[in-house]
């Protein structure tokens, strides 16, 4: 299967029930651009075009640090805001490749990744970016990026792509992503023999936990955990559909979610799972925990899931426009920034029934 293959779904309706949501969105983006697989090789070295409506273009990821926020997406668009998402400016970016992930260590230092395996870095708060790495001939896009500090980082992507750096991104090498099964019934020899076949999956999100674990949400029901940031384990999975997001909470509690509204909760670091009914069959994309403790999960078809009990139950707050929501982050003034098919928009918590004594589990009349 090609990394951009779609097995079902339509971007405009949010009815994506199979395959990779980021691969699907990026494929639609390439169709809109009129790019073929041949011409796509050239976009990693071409500068992004300044566009007045960039804030309304397809944006796949965002991050906030205090009142600062950045969003990335199609055509190499990177937008930054210094006022909690109220106004946005387009950055100078040396690529037109679709960007799928962004991470800021602080309000100045950040990285972005995407198609053609482009990896970008900024040192001035996202105003200007430099191209550190690209490998378009490999045809495996990157989906997410994370840095532990200013030197040590990882970027993950399609077909088990796992790149690491120890010099802030100046140089990258492909790591050996060969997880061992958590089950003690599988011998090391059996695991090694099956590595090439078993672990060649799309890796969608990389998420650290407060207690030092690292998690990766992946294709076909895979969830990976690392306790030393070097070796990985394939944890028992409660579902064979793709997981697009993982949200570590306190201690060993975490949520994993993905296709058709499937969401599961674990209290032992991913060893065992309990399915949480969410009242929606929309594909779920990313999650965050608010400063006030509530949990927000984003999804296709305008889906926002809200929990005020640590992810044990959720209510649906579907947005009226029903446009796909791919990510949400919270800014210093406690508002939310959403990115997706609509571009970027700001949402105050009262719109979700959160804050001022309101209970998100009480549905609107």
Strands of the biggest beta sheet: in what spatial order? 13-17-16-15-14
- The 3D shape can be described as globular
CATH class identity: Mainly Beta
Structural class: mainly beta
Helix content: under 10%
| CATH fold assignment | Methylamine Dehydrogenase, Chain H
Average pLDDT across residues?
84
Which residues form runs of ≥5 with pLDDT under 50?
1-20, 23-41, 189-197, 359-365
Strands, count: 28
The biggest sheet amounts to: 5 strands, mixed
**Counting H and I runs of at least 4 residues, what is the number of helices?**
2
CATH architectural category: 7 Propeller
Any idea how many domains?
A: 1
- Rounded to the nearest angstrom, the radius of gyration is 19 Å
Beta-strand content: 25-35%
Q: SSE order in H/E notation? A: HEEEEEEEEEEEEEHEEEEEEEEEEEEEEE
**N-to-C span:** 46 Å
Write up this protein.
This protein is mainly β. The chain has a single domain, classed as YVTN repeat-like/Quinoprotein amine dehydrogenase (Methylamine Dehydrogenase, Chain H, 7 Propeller). The protein has two helices and 28 strands. Strands 13-17-16-15-14 form a five-stranded mixed β-sheet. The longest helix is centred in the first third of the chain and has 13 residues. The termini are far apart. The N terminus and C terminus are likely disordered.
